[in-house]
What we know:
alpha/beta; seven-stranded mixed beta sheet; four-stranded antiparallel beta sheet; 7 helices; 13 strands
Amino acid sequence: MNINEAQLFYKTQFDLYGKDINYPELDEGLAAEVVEQMGRPFTSVLELGAGKGNLARCLAGRGKSVTTVELVPEMVEYARQLHTLGVTSLCGSFYDIELPRQFDAVLYMDGFGVGTDAEQLQLLRRICDWLHNDGAALIDIYQPAYWQRTSGRTMTLPGDVSRTYGYDEALDRMTDTWWSTDRPDEKMTQSLACYLPDDIHDLCKQADLEIVAYFPGGAMDFEAWEYHEVASLAECLSYRIKVVKV
Ligand SMILES: C[S@@+](CC[C@H](N)C(=O)[O-])C[C@H]1O[C@@H](n2cnc3c(N)ncnc32)[C@H](O)[C@@H]1O
């Protein structure tokens, strides 16, 4: 997806679904995970693609100083009007925003893969520049095998929104199509690149980043309609990589 497509998709998703639906216990759980996975004391955090800023607010509640970068102005406005001490919400694209400083931690949760491989590499190089020498980044990566398996699944979400998953085998990208259930003619699709652990390892290496840990996420069992918090690296929906400067 190019920038304009991404901005339109995430702004529409925010209007349709994101504005009023919150899961605070999941946000707190994610903040606790980040602290655990960082594995050492840290203070300054850069969060990319921060959405409504829910994770940033939870981390600020744990004493972190968080700068967020988010593309969609409406989401940045949502975060800013909450005036959370310790959070600076910036509106812009992580491909070209000027951030003349470094951080202990860089986070990109649920969203890496929006661009082409070349753009992902450009972003990884920027992440390397934004890290202190002893800093670490945590980045969620979509696992191709899960999304190949999940292709064709359709579901209805709270707020009368429908969603269907697909997989583009030629490009190795999952597709995620949303529409308001009563307006099936107005569908919009995001597509996100999926990387096997070896492939993201190679991409990180090109950006002078070394993967020092892989944390598998969960997986949805669509037959039982149950989400399993723990899945193997090969079967999870996404896995988180921890990267440091080489
Ligand atoms: C799938 S959402 C995840 C939001 C949030 N991290 C979360 O886990 O709830 C991806 C986010 O990345 C943002 N995004 C996409 N491309 C971006 C870019 N070039 N610069 C900054 N943010 C971007 C989108 O607007 C969207 O809010």
